[in-house]
Amino acid sequence: MVIKGTTRLLGVIGYPVEHSFSPLMHxxxxxxxxxxxxxxxxxxxxxxxxPIPPESxxxxxxxxxxxxxxxxxxxxxxxxxxxxxxxxxxxxxxxxGAVNTVWRSEAGWSGTNxxxxxxxxxxxxxxxxxSNTPAMILGNGGAARAVVAACVQLECPEVWVVGRSPAxxxxxxxxxTAAPEISAKLSVLPWGERVGLLPKAGLVVNATPxxxxxxxxxxxxxxxxxxxxxxxxxxxxxxYTPRPTAFLNRASAAGLTAIDGLEMLVQQGAAxxxxxxxxxxxxxxxxxxxxxxxxxx
Length: 297
Ligand code: NAP
Hints:
With about 300 residues, the chain is an alpha/beta fold. Helix content is about 35%, strand content about 20%. It has twelve helices and twelve strands. A six-stranded mixed beta sheet has the order 2-1-3-5-6-4. Strands 9-8-7-10-11-12 form a six-stranded parallel beta sheet, with helices on both faces. The protein is globular, with a radius of gyration of 20 Å. The two termini are about 25 Å apart. The structure holds NADP nicotinamide-adenine-dinucleotide phosphate. NADP nicotinamide-adenine-dinucleotide phosphate binds next to helix 4, helix 5 and helix 11.
């Protein structure tokens, strides 16, 4: 990658941000576009990580405007707190209550959420009618919010969110009152209910860190429990390392369709890049950059 006087800056903010795979994925895409373009400088960008402590978020966003930053991704813990600092926020991001992609627009800073689109990509690729597929989401954290919005968009008839904290579940349920199309389909249930719901759930999503490094032996469901899922059911783990997780190993052993979180990561990044560069993202290159890196680790 050649950094010149004209090169514009993209990045990711988080705290910490060292674990982010976004710089790797986006810089690989930028390099690929430049190497395969007929015109010069079609992606004259560089993408950097910015560790920004919560108390510096507002100053950082003003600073980004001052230096003409072209756009940025947002990861934990800024996805919610950035919203009041933006000039325009998309409907989907407002419904989810979190922004992961920001760009400079006529309004100033505009933000949206590409996690839901990223989550949906491998499901939409199945070309399936989802109107008879109730979805169960394990966990009620930040990622579960994007998954709920996505499942409603997919037209799943019911969306069940199971979590271990009754107070957090209640807050989760209350938080959708401004999105009636979502709250109409959403039920929140105690963690213990998940096994009983398995035979009815056509799509089960792990949105907890159970199974992620370092607790790689953990799984939200046992193999015996997963055998209760119906033929053709889908187990989707948002975790992308390790691949596969214990949850997905069990799903495959039970004859279910297993989807891991790598494609969501790739597709949310591709959707962000398309917003910034206003051209199709080289999705295969982004996926391969991640696979190479994860394989090498
Ligand atoms: P989060 O906001 O911290 O939420 C985690 C959720 O899991 C919370 O509801 C938490 O419950 C629950 N949980 C944690 N440990 C549990 C346990 N032992 N038993 C039952 N529930 C438990 O995290 P997040 O941002 O939503 O991320 C969740 C997962 O998705 C992570 O593994 C993350 O890596 C993955 N993710 C993947 C992508 C992707 O692009 N593929 C994107 C985002 C996230 P409490 O609220 O009670 O603590």
